[in-house]
């Protein structure tokens, strides 16, 4: 029995060391990509590479709001510390200027940096793994055509200050499946293009898919919504989108401009629309909308109308929580959003028809009311004024009554919001 136990222990130790040193890992990069591209080939690929880099939101993830484009430094908070996005300009010291064609392919498709270093999954290689080799070439050509910026990446914090990259091999073993983008002969060209972008480079699921306990995407619940960075990234299924009133035209408009009848982009989605989808070719944005809105039968369902106001919100009893919420809205919100919730163009979004108010989870509304929203600039010289935080202007019970009334009036929701739910929202402004 003792020999059996030692044998089992030895197998576990040897297996663990094999995983630790990445012996199980294979590459999706064929040997032919070790050959460099010619200058003419690189030049010809630049326009295609720009479109694909936009689709991958490279600029949003690797550019600080007030910093140079693609020079990195964007903080990504995790329970274990902060990871900063890297400099991916062609700078040879701080960026990827020394990356070969094959190095770039391995980073994008294998999650491996030169020298066999595992990338942290904050780089969504579990999605960009789906990128076709010819498209990886195009992105490489485009990025290498940009100006190099000699800006170092800030040091990571927490556990990421320690030599833990090797342990990412365990994470990859359990969370990095060899996926393929869905491609179907019975679907349209737009659907297939959208599937490739959404499931791969666009990595929509990295925010809109629930995570497992290892912070890896639960692919069995792909695009079914998740909570990330204090906001709920709502489901992107066909049923969920049509229930919020989207059709292909309005969803395309939202992605292309950040503004639609259902509301305006904020939080992480503002970064996506600002840096990525608003700059993409219209046909690619339409392809994304087509894929997301198509149900399992291949149809795009008719969008639903906004929910009707609840009677108790329109005619609240005097002194009731609904009445107090209505009065708070009139005093604190109606100046910008309108007494009828109509909003003011280039000032504040409409509340009437706003899909955020109809979401089952009130988290996003609460977070916006508590912490406010900064100034946002959209395409076509459109903008919205900053919304001030109300965490220090209204008590928790006042915010609870306000959000309860908002959701009942324009979201058709009858679940009351509690002061405890308001208190649970992290304050970003002290």
Give a count of the beta strands, DSSP E runs of length 2 or more.
10
- Rounded mean pLDDT is 93
SSE pattern, N- to C-terminal: HHHEEHEEHHHHHEEHHEEHHHHHHEEHH
Shape: globular
Total helices: the number is 19
Side by side, the strands of the main sheet go 1-2
**Percent in strands:** 5-15%
Helix content estimate? 40-55%
Domain module tally: 3
What's the topology here?
Layout: H1 2-20, H2 39-55, H3 58-62, E1 75-78, E2 81-84, H4 101-110, E3 112-113, E4 117-118, H5 125-128, H6 133-144, H7 168-175, H8 189-201, H9 205-208, E5 226-228, E6 231-233, H10 238-243, H11 248-257, E7 259-260, E8 263-264, H12 268-275, H13 282-293, H14 311-314, H15 321-332, H16 334-337, H17 363-371, E9 376-377, E10 383-384, H18 396-410, H19 419-423
Antiparallel strand pairs: 1-2, 3-4, 5-6, 7-8, 9-10
Descriptive tags:
430 residues, mainly alpha, Cytochrome Bc1 Complex, Chain D, domain 2, 3 domains, two-stranded antiparallel sheet, two-stranded antiparallel ribbon, 19 helices, 6% strand
Describe this structure in a few short sentences.
The chain is mostly helical and 430 residues long. Helices cover 41% and strands 6% of the residues.
Structural commentary:
By secondary structure, this protein is mainly alpha-helical. It has 3 domains: 30-153; 189-293, Cytochrome Bc1 Complex, Chain D, domain 2 (Orthogonal Bundle), CATH 1.10.760; 311-423, Cytochrome Bc1 Complex, Chain D, domain 2 (Orthogonal Bundle). The strands form 5 sheets. A two-stranded antiparallel sheet has the order 1-2. The protein has a two-stranded antiparallel sheet with strand order 3-4. Strands 5-6 form a two-stranded antiparallel sheet. It has 19 helices and 10 strands. α2 crosses α6, α4 packs across α6 (133-144) and α11 (248-257) crosses α13 (282-293).
């Amino acid at each position: 029995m003792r020999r059996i136990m030692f044998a089992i222990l030895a197998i576990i130790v040897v297996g663990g060391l094999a995983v630790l040193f990445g012996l199980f890992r294979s590459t999706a990069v064929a040997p032919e990509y070790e050959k460099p591209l010619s200058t003419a080939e690189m030049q010809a690929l630049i326009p295609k590479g720009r479109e694909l880099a936009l689709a991958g939101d490279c600029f949003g993830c690797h550019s600080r709001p007030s910093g140079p484009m693609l020079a990195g430094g964007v903080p990504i908070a995790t329970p274990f510390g902060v990871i900063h996005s890297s400099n991916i300009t062609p700078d040879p010291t701080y960026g990827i200027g020394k990356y070969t064609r094959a190095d770039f392919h391995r980073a994008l498709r294998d999650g491996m940096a030169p020298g066999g270093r595992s990338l942290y999954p904050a780089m969504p290689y579990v999605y960009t793994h789906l990128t076709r080799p010819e498209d990886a070439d195009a992105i490489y050509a485009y990025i290498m055509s940009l100006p190099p910026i000699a800006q170092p990446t800030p040091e990571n914090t927490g556990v990421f200050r320690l030599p833990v990259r090797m342990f990412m091999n365990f994470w990859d073993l359990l969370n990095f499946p060899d996926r393929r983008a869905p491609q179907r002969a019975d679907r349209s060209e737009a659907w297939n293009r959208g599937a490739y972008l959404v499931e791969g480079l666009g990595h929509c699921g990295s925010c809109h898919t629930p995570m497992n306990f290892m912070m890896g995407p639960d692919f069995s619940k792909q695009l079914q919504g998740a909570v990330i960075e204090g906001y709920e990234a709502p489901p992107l299924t066909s049923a969920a989108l049509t229930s919020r009133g989207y059709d292909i035209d309005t969803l395309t408009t939202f992605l292309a401009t950040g503004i639609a009848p259902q509301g305006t982009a904020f939080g992480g989605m503002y970064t996506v629309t600002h840096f990525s989808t608003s700059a993409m070719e219209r046909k690619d944005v339409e392809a994304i909308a087509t894929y997301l809105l198509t149900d399992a039968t291949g149809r795009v369902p008719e969008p639903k109308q906004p929910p009707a106001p609840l009677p108790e919100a329109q005619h609240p009893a005097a002194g009731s929580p609904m009445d107090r919420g209505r009065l708070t809205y009139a005093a604190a919100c109606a100046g910008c959003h309108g007494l009828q919730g109509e909003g003011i163009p280039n000032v504040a979004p409409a509340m009437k028809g706003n899909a955020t108010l109809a979401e089952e989870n009130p988290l996003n509304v609460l977070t916006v009311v508590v912490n406010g929203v900064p100034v946002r600039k959209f395409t076509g010289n459109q903008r919205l004024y900053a919304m001030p935080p109300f965490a220090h202007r209204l008590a928790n019970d006042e915010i609870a009554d306000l959000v309860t009334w908002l959701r009942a009036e324009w979201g058709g929701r009858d679940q009351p919001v509690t002061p405890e739910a308001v208190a649970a929202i992290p304050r970003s402004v002290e």
